[in-house]
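Subject: Sanity check before I submit

Could someone independently write out the structure tokens for this chain? I want to compare against mine line by line before I put it in a report. The sequence has 298 residues.
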Amino acid sequence: MKMSKQFPLNALRVFEAAARLGSFTKAGEELGMTQTAVSYQIKLIEENVGEPLFLRRPRQVTLTEVGQRLAPKVTEAFELLQDAVSSARGDIGAALRIHSTATFASQWLARNIGTFHLAHPNIAVRLSTSDKIIDLAQEAADIAIRYGKGDWPGLVGHPLMRGEFTPMLSPALAETIGGVHEPRDLLKLRIIDPNDPWWPLWFRAAGVDDPDLAGRPASRLGAQTFEARAAVAGQGVAILTPAFYADEVALGRLYQPFDLHANDGRDYWLVYPHARRNAPKIRAFRDWVLRELNPGGL
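---
Independent answer below. Compare away.
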């Protein structure tokens, strides 16, 4: 039997879009087809498989059990085809789209991405940042750097860096109170974002069970990297991931008064869809970043 008869590829593409978007209408908009045409292509696939793939409800379609088993395999197949064609064309214009937390992007990735460019000059990098967890099946991103516990269904995850934190401040600010000698001395200074849940965790680990942070003026700067800048400027004590600020400590801009680090069970991870695990550009970045960070026993 000819493959075109056995595998209706165009109908499979329509099925992949409808399954990913959860809508025949949205699938049609993405593919430039009418909803009627989408429904027809889905019907062809269902006749070919011999089972319904969607439950049709008013204004909503959901995958059946058979559809749920088929969808990830079809997505993986199209991803592999796309990568194979790009490789055959020598497509150097295909970019690696990275979504990252703002802090990891500014404090580590931006400072080191040049070595990746040198090793892989044919891979263009496109970086976007936010602290929200995006859906890699819906958003324009190939991989993501996330802060969490690594339990994201459907994604391959590699630990990159421990999410440890400790108080840091400028040396000049510490001198205003005669130095920071014990954890309670920090409470004599302005705490940057006292509502940050990291603070009570660290104080508890330091043996201070009643830091009384609730009554302090609240300030949220949106990302750790901005809090670090405020600390460098002497605006208060920030609780930071020290691995990101070794340069600032070496230059005397930041001071870490205690060796004690705390962790809330979350770390920095590299993640990407299981279906894309063999994409050459993803493999290249994965191997590079793991080698650069060498997380060891994380």
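---
OP: Matches mine. For the report I'm noting this point. The two ends are 51 Å apart (CA to CA).
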